[in-house]
Amino acid sequence: MKKLVLAAAIAAALPVIAQADVTIYGSIRGGLDSMKSADTGFKSQTGVDDFGSRLGFKGNEDLGNGLKAIWQVESGFNIDGVATAGSGAGTFGTRTTFVGLEGGFGKVRVGYIDDVLGETEATDNLYGPRRDNIGMAFPLYEGSDIFGTYGDGRVKNSVRYDTPDLNGFNAIVQYGSGEAVSASTGKKTGNTFGTRLAYSNAGFFGAYAYMAKFNTVQDKNSGVHRVEFGYDANNLYLAATLQKVTLWGDASSISNFASFNIANTGANKLTSNSWAINAAYTFGAFKPSFVYSKRQSVKVDGNSQDWGATQWAAALDYTVSKRTMVEAGYGQVKEDKGAQAALGWAENKASITWIMLKHNF
Q1: Does domain 23-360 have CATH number 1.10.238.10?
Q2: pTM above the 0.70 mark?
Q3: Quick check: 209 pLDDT over 90?
Q4: pLDDT value at position 245?
Q5: What does the pLDDT read at residue 3?
Q6: What is the domain partition of the chain in residue ranges?
C-alpha cells in the first residue's frame, strides 16, 4: 500500500517537475599546493587540496505580469575528501541558498545570502586552498583581522533587496537576524545590516559598501566601510580597494596582549585601514594577474600598534576551454613585528605556491 501511495505521489509531481525551470550547475576545483604558515608550523607542506568546489540548483517560475519566483540551493564540497573548516562543505545548502521574488522593482530574497562586502571584492580574483582560514587571504581585507572580523561571505537568516539597474546604478540593502540575546545585557546579538551602492559604465566601475554587526560586545557595534573602483574592458583589468574597519572585541583573545599595554576591559576597540590594488591582462588564452595589499594605521582603544602587514600574490591563468582553466601562482603575507606577536606566529612570513585545475558545468 505504501509503495502505491509513493508511486501516486511521484506521478502527481511529475507535471510540476516537467514545468519547472531548474538549472544544475557547479564548479570542481582541485590542485597541488605547497604552504608554509602557522598551520604547518612554518615548515613547507605539500599536498592535494580543494580550491572551493561547489554544486548548486537554481530556478524560477513565471508568475505573470513581469513577476517571477526565484530560488537557489548551493553547497560546497571538497574533492580531496577532507572537510576544511569554513569551506562550506559537509552539509546541504552551505553556500548561497534562498527563495524570493523578482520583477521590475528588482528582487527580494530570504535565506543564506551573499553579503554586501562579498559583492565588493574587485581586487580579489585569485584562487587558493583554504586561503580564508590560514591568514593568507588575497588580498588582506578578506582575511581574518587580528581582532577577528566578519563579512566577505554570506549572511544567515538574511533578507536582501537588490534594485534593478538604473542607468548604470544599482543598490543593495540587507539585514541579517542573529536570533540570539545576550544573557548579560539582554540585548539582541549577531544582527547585521549592510548597504551597497554601485555604478558601472563603459568598462569603468565603482562601489561603496558598509556592513555593521550590532552589539558585538556589550552595546558596541562593529562596522566595515569599503570603497572600490576600476576598469574592466579591452582585455585590461585594473582595480583598487580602500577599507576602514572598527571592530569591538575582548583583548584577552590576542596573543601576548599584556605586552601591548592594552587594558583587558572585555570591550576593546580596534580600528585599522587597508588597501589593495589588482591588475590583470588577457592575451589569447593567457591572463597574468597581480595583487598587492597592506594593513596599516592599527589602533586599539586609540593607541597605535605595530600590527600592520603586507601581502602580494601573482598568478597566471590558462584558459583550456570555455569551461576549463588552469591557474598557477605564488603568494605571501608578511606581518609586522607587533602583528606577529599578536597572532602568536613563530615567524613573520607565510607563503603558498599552487597549481589548480577548475572545471565549471
Answers
A1: no
A2: yes
A3: yes
A4: 93
A5: 46
A6: 23-360
